Amino acid sequence: MAYETATLTCIGGDSKVTEWAYNTSDKPGEVLEPGYFPDDCKINFMRSGEKLTINCWSENRRYDSTPIMVAKGVVSVTEGRIWHFLSPQSPAWPAKSNASRDKALIAA
Q1: pLDDT in the model for residue 15
Q2: Are 75 and 48 in contact (CB under 8 A)?
Q3: Rounded to whole angstroms, how far apart are CA atoms 38 and 28?
């Protein structure tokens, strides 16, 4: 799938930096790929260096209450106008950890 403007939400900020949240049902590998976020200021409202939290949901989001991946980092744009998501830490995989917890609860 492609980037969806409607799911990019400003969740806070000041005159220096803004924090964004992006929710998608795209595969985590696609979203983390350089160039996923378009270089078009009419649909991509972020500026280089701003904070971004990405939440990837399964396609059955209606039934799942936990994202399959959560990644926090900053966005950066190269001289060639390619957008990158830079994360200082590995993405979290909450759906996997909840599945393990649920299995343990059922077994107990």
Answers
A1: 81
A2: yes
A3: 17
The structure's pTM equals 0.79
64-91 b/e (C-beta count within 10 Å ≥ 16 → b): eebbbbbbbbbbebeeeeebbbeeeeeb
Instruction: Please enumerate in sequence order all residues whose Cβ is within 8 A of that of 25, keeping only pairs 6 or more positions apart, or say none.
Output: 1, 56, 57, 58, 59, 61
pLDDT < 70 positions in the chain: 1, 61-65, 95, 97-108
CA atoms within 13 A on the CB side of 89: 8
- Residue 59 phi/psi, 5-degree rounding, is -65, -20
- Of all helices (H) and strands (E), which one includes residue 22? strand 18-24
